[in-house]
Amino acid sequence: MAVTLRAVATAVPPTILVQPEVRDVFAAQPGLNRLAQRIIGTAFDVSGIETRHTVLDELSWEAHPDEPVFFDIDSGELRLPGTKVRNEIYAVEATRLYLEAARAALAACTGVEASDITHVVTVSCTGFYAPGPDFMLARDLGLNPGVERYHLGFMGCYASIPALRIAKQLCEADASAVVLVVSAELCTLHLRSSNDPDTIVASSLFADGAAAGIVSTRPAEAGEKAFDLDGFATRVTPVGEGDMAWKIGDHGFEMVLSNAIPAIIDDHITGALEPLFATEPTLAAALAADTASQAVEHWAIHPGGRSILDKVESRLVLTEAQLVPARETLRDFGNMSSATVLFVLKNILESHAASDGDRVAAMAFGPGLTVESALLTVRA
């Protein structure tokens, strides 16, 4: 019984951040030491990002609120609102993005109506509220009052892969299940000026966005591209627990993102893929022989940053073309935490290069240091 991911849809807020402009704003903040200014210039310029999106319209050059909360355009100074203020914005704006992405997925999924949804799985690590986004989706989409709801919170950038795994398990347990999976992240709510290198790197990378998809045993319609969800794996690296972390501070959430992460991924990515490929001898042999790029046509790598993609490409001997979907996602949208890997999957699905029967390996990295992976097959 095949379980299929259909109608992958995305949504972003309208305010666009242009990377050089944001760099100049951060570099001009008062209180920065010389080292921080150098790190800002380097981090922003080598990020591989050209544009990002944010729910904070104050960060656009057009907005001039009477009482700025995050950014005073007249003085050019970034403000430092408390966590409560940031989270109140999250509750409003995240709900909008959850709904936009979910409605787009439903509209794109021929033969599936809102009334068919049996389960909702929501994902986010950039805010909290209750009743939460799972409740808001059920209410505002007019889902069945008995729809089952689950929320994966504060897991970090890899969380959409466990969400898809849960959806697959629900469908395997009940062939009539139709699962709506939605991730929404408002990372820019937690940006701030700082001399701390981790905070500076985070400010150069993170962005806002949402993505959704529908998982069920119902086959895709004729002419529709979709993914069969073949298998999943989790691996925690033996080092790196303190190198990637996400904590709640008085002025928003605080990211620990050390410069050791690319090297850790380089050392352990092959081992992280071993349990994913173990059930298919051909793939396992290809991984051992460093020819996985020949056995798997497409690679949906979470673009945590350009250096991470560079390490993955080099260690797995991938072609430049195989990293295009991840690099294009990073270039146009930045790192949207858990939603990002779904953007990459959508890019693959919409590309002319994706053909029926092609294999896809998806990977995302998060606190722990945890590597979540999935194996998929294109259906077209």
Automatic annotation (TrEMBL):
Domain of life: Bacteria
Positions of the Chalcone/stilbene synthase N-terminal domain: 4-219
Keyword Transferase: yes
Pfam families in the cross-refs: Chal_sti_synt_C (PF02797), Chal_sti_synt_N (PF00195)
Record keywords, A-Z: Transferase
Coiled-coil segments on the chain, per record: none
Record-annotated Chalcone/stilbene synthase C-terminal domain positions: 235-376
Family: Belongs to the thiolase-like superfamily. Chalcone/stilbene synthases family.
Protein name in UniProt: Type III polyketide synthase
Organism: Agromyces humatus
